[in-house]
Design brief:
Elements (H helix, E strand, L loop, with lengths): L1 H6 L8 H22 L5 E3 L20 E3 L4 E9 L8 E4 L5 H13 L7 E7 L3 E4 L9 E7 L18 H17 L1 H8 L1
Parallel strand pairs: 4-5
Antiparallel strand pairs: 1-7, 2-6, 3-7, 5-6
Length: 193
């Protein structure tokens, strides 16, 4: 509705699906700018009670080293051990190609979860896999503090609170894209980049 009001005579020149696609593109651009300027603006913590929620991360297992990260995960900030007796255990990021990670993983293949470690090496593989070098010594419960993505706009869905203050920037982006694409392809080119 906001977009149609701003479009004036161009209202109705795009389908609702096209407008939502442009709005999501604009939302992603706003997200990227805000993330670059305010590193912790989109940080949230995981929870381990509702497995269907976007921020779910279950407990670690003594027999497993790969875990699925929350659906909204984009970047790790901090890992907190919530088990009171193991607060001193640290989780340290390592590239899985590093010698430290690989040597520790090989050693863990031999000893399993029998050793108590003061730290665990981890890496993020692909978009949403949390990989440990060592097998956990116990079924740790962790709280991940991570940069979260913003869910896409869709018909009938509410605007996420975190993007709501910037909705005018999203509307402006969509309106300019539509107007430029309708008027002059040479002017529209820079918006494609």
């Amino acid at each position: 509705d906001l977009i149609d009001a701003e479009l004036g005579g161009w209202s109705g020149s795009r389908t609702p699906e096209q407008i939502i696609q442009l709005a999501n593109e604009a939302k992603n651009k706003v997200w990227a700018v805000l993330k670059a300027e305010h590193e912790d603006w989109f940080v949230k913590s995981s929870q381990s009670t509702v497995a269907t929620d976007d921020d779910y991360f279950g407990p670690l297992s003594t027999s497993q080293r790969e875990y699925t990260l929350p659906l909204s995960f984009t970047e790790m900030r901090f890992i907190e051990v919530t088990d009171e007796a193991f607060q001193s255990v640290e989780f340290l990021p390592r590239d899985i190609t590093s010698q430290d990670f690989q040597d520790t993983r090989r050693n863990s293949n031999q000893v399993g979860s029998a050793i108590r470690y003061p730290f665990y090496y981890y890496g993020i593989v692909g978009a949403r896999t949390f990989m440990l070098a060592q097998f956990p010594e116990r079924n740790f419960q962790l709280r991940l503090w991570f940069v979260a993505s913003i869910p896409d706009f869709d018909v009938g869905k509410e605007i996420p609170d975190v993007i709501f203050p910037y909705i005018s920037a999203v509307v402006s982006f969509v309106v300019k894209r539509i107007m430029l694409s309708n008027q002059d392809l040479e002017l529209y080119g820079p918006w494609e980049r």
